[in-house]
Amino acid sequence: MPMHIGDKDFKKRVTKGIEDDFMRGAVRSAQGRLQDKRATAADELGDWEEWRTLGSEIRRHTIEHLDYYLHQLSEKVAELGGHVFFAETGAEANEYIQKVAKEKDAKKSQNPSQW
């Protein structure tokens, strides 16, 4: 279940936070440390744009060869005693999950989006 923050309480907390000198100092300090760490990492890595381009190429390659990588993953999972199920549709995936839950006599389930 998604968290909902009402406007009224949120505005009160923002006002309280803005008026809190310690909190403002802590945020300013954290932002400064993050900026310093980012600058240090950027210096160590070299040309940012080269890294962005490389990352883009890796993503493109992976998507273009996704069938290969998924097969490789399923083989490794099987070697380790696991099972991978490839569903053609969402409905097929749901049916499989329900079947496994019933076979295992599951009492609870967890939505992966809440992990």
Describe the protein in words.
The protein is mainly α. The chain has a domain at 14-46. The protein contains five helices and no strands. It has helices at residues 7-19, 21-45, 48-64, 66-79, 90-103. The radius of gyration is 24 Å and the shape is flat. The model has no long low-confidence stretch (mean pLDDT 90). One of its GO terms (biological process) is lactate metabolic process. It comes from Gracilibacillus boraciitolerans JCM 21714. InterPro entries: LutB/LldF.
| Rg estimate, integer Å | 24 Å
Tell me the overall shape.
flat
The share of residues in extended strands comes to under 5%
Number of helices: 5
Low-confidence segments, given as residue ranges, are none
First-residue to last-residue Cα separation: 12 Å
* Average pLDDT reading: 90
Brief overview, please?
The chain is mainly alpha-helical. The protein has five helices and no strands.
Secondary structure elements and their pairing?
Elements: H1 7-19, H2 21-45, H3 48-64, H4 66-79, H5 90-103
GO biological process, one term: lactate metabolic process
Organism: Gracilibacillus boraciitolerans JCM 21714
Protein name: L-lactate dehydrogenase
